[in-house]
Amino acid sequence: MDREETSRIESRHRDLAPDVFRKYAHEAADWIVEYLEDMNGYSVLAPTRPGEVKSKIPKSPPQKPEPFENVMDDFRKVVLPGITHWNHPRFFAYFSITSSYPGIIGEMLCSALNVNAMLWKTSPSATELEEVVTDWLRQMLGLPEEFEGVINDTASVGSLCAIAAAREYTGLQVRGKGLAGRSELSRLRIYTSEEAHSSIEKAAIVLGIGQEGVRKIPTDEAFRLDFHALEKAVQDDLDAGVKPTCVIATIGTTSTTSVDPVKEISEMCKRHGIWLHVDAAYGGAAAVIKEMRSLFSGWENADSIVVNPHKWLFTPLDCSVLYCRRPEVLKQAFSLTPEYLRTAEESDVKNFMDYGVSLGRRFRALKLWMVIRSLGTEGIANAIQEHISYARKLAGIIRVHPDFQLLAPVPFSTLVFRFLPSKLQTDAKTMPDLEINKLNEELLEAVNRTGRVFLSHTKLRGKYGIRLAIGNLKTTWEDVASAWNIILQKAKELSS
Ligand SMILES: Cc1ncc(COP(=O)(O)O)c(C=O)c1O
């Protein structure tokens, strides 16, 4: 196909000609396989300066069609160098995530179908597959039957919806009457730990509860919510006429993957009639392993739970499942049907637009269905189990290393540690954290600058911790060991 042909636009449809699409779709598939099978030539973290990518792209759009070949050229030359490779087996930053081949095919077909899963009628398969696949995942996680799932883009949105449902559950008619200017209304309060994800506070901002309406409960030595402090906070608020609206417990916090005492929290919530939302955006995936279920004790009593298949279930961004045991309350919070969206069968079917903020909804269930079918529940559990075993193995190495300190327990597959050379350890009590922090910041930068790995950081009670998260389908123990060797090498260089 020559250059002229590759720019051919079908005059009838004003789209790329079908044979041009076929050619580049095949090429893209070939490129994806090469890319995913050997990422060694790529720097894990993009070595890009701010503005570098923009400087290579014209400020205005092209007026005339450009040959697709040129677009693909620029994908390689302009876009790829500015990519941080989340699919790289040595990507250990934030929460390490991966797509998978069935997930990628699911995304492709989703774009091709381009259906809007807002109403059952607007694509019965999209709605019914979402009902089925979220129920499959519920079974995989060992959750009771009464939980019904809805897929959102992110856990941030899932938690926002859950807290909106909790607000509705108070019976204060906030949906209809709002919050402002109601002198009869007591202040609403939500409770979560100091280690909770920022999305919870953001939800409070959006929902009119406000940042001051979020009580951040202190955590214990293992960064778990302090249950007695929570009980006291709730009682104090009740005494002061403040309305406890929702408790958000986390299974797998962002910094250290700590696990809040969900069972005790759920019992307290039940006593007081408070909605319990569990943020298991990352950790939830580990419930597919039966031996890990003790970490999840009590989540079966929650009112809502969020789990992200796009974090540790090998499904491409975006895909987050919100489970709700009271879907009717979620619906009460969000359902609003203008005439043009009325359908004859609405009382017999689920219209997912009723269970969240967005009207337009992607057919995300398709990729999750393809991932679960292609990898199988056993395959998924084995991959997650492997990540956990690598994390435990590395934790064992760090625990006995004279120059390193684990800063938190390792319940899942994420480690937080710091470099503390043994010669400094006697001074560590008197030595300000600031200096040790600076040393670790420099170490992390040096490690990431190699381009061979990418790790991120956190701060725990003033201590800077290097964070290594394992979650990529292609990560092997050799990749983890290689990251550890790079850390040792750079630590040696820094302290010599
Ligand atoms: C515990 C927890 N909850 C929620 C989120 C937000 O997830 P999302 O990006 O899907 O909104 C994160 C992100 O890492 C997280 O770690």
Plain-language structure description:
The chain is α/β, with parallel strands linked by helices and 496 residues long. Helix content is 42%, strand content 12%. It has helices spanning 3-6, 18-37, 68-79, 101-113, 124-141, 155-169, 174-177, 198-206, 227-239, 262-272, 309-312, 327-334, 365-399, 422-425, 433-449, 477-495; strands spanning 9-10, 15-16, 148-152, 188-193, 214-217, 243-250, 275-279, 304-307, 320-324, 404-406, 414-419, 456-460, 463-469. Helix 8 links the parallel strand 4 and strand 5. The longest helix has 35 residues, at 365-399. The model has no long low-confidence stretch (mean pLDDT 95).
Helix-strand layout with pairing:
Blueprint (H helix, E strand, L loop, with lengths): L2 H4 L2 E2 L4 E2 L1 H20 L30 H12 L21 H13 L10 H18 L6 E5 L2 H15 L4 H4 L10 E6 L4 H9 L7 E4 L9 H13 L3 E8 L11 H11 L2 E5 L24 E4 L1 H4 L7 E5 L2 H8 L30 H35 L4 E3 L7 E6 L2 H4 L7 H17 L6 E5 L2 E7 L7 H19 L1
Parallel strand pairs: 4-5, 4-6, 6-7, 7-8
Antiparallel strand pairs: 1-2, 3-9, 8-9, 10-11, 11-13, 12-13
The structure holds pyridoxal-5'-phosphate.
